[in-house]
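Below is one record:
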Amino acid sequence: MVNKFYKALVSSNVESFEELFQLIRENCQLLKPLYAYRAKFSGFLNYLLVRSAVSQDYEKVFGITIDFLACNIVKSPEDIIDCLQNIKRNNLWIHFTKELIRNPLLNKDVLISLGQDIKAFQSLPYDMCWIEVPVIQYGKMILSLDIAKLSVKQICPLIDVINDESLIEFLLGWAFEDNKLDREGIEYFKACFPKKYETISCLGDR
């Protein structure tokens, strides 16, 4: 198996990706030495992505590859961006980003960092299938801290680049219910989401 693996690594033939697929399906530990050959890894990742939509076998190995990236490679938002550079077809960027960010093996600290990093956030393909994850993880973290009152920007640093009012409503409603919103935040919440504001106010007898 080792000889076959290294022969496929150095081969420039398209067929070598199929050989790598068969070998990694049998032994996922081969992903680590494959990653050392970044150009080959990139080609292999694209090979899997294109085929994973039509084949469960390729989908399974693609999932294992995402697990490998989430667990071993991605340690910061910049690493997510770096991984995305491997994807040649921009119509696959969103799917790849979603699978990586929603992977349960990805360290929550990475998501929390992304939830406050506007530059990194805007470097990724915008789609609701993934953006709620870092936004909520960051909000959950900041609301758990022993801070008496928080501003809207402190709760959701990405508020100016998110086109989803329901997500902002959820976070501010959470903060208001926990009595964490500062005075300006309460006024903003009341003005932008009056129904939610009234509902929580009635429930909390405010």
Q: What stands out?
A: The radius of gyration is 21 Å. Residues 56-73 form the longest helix (18 residues).
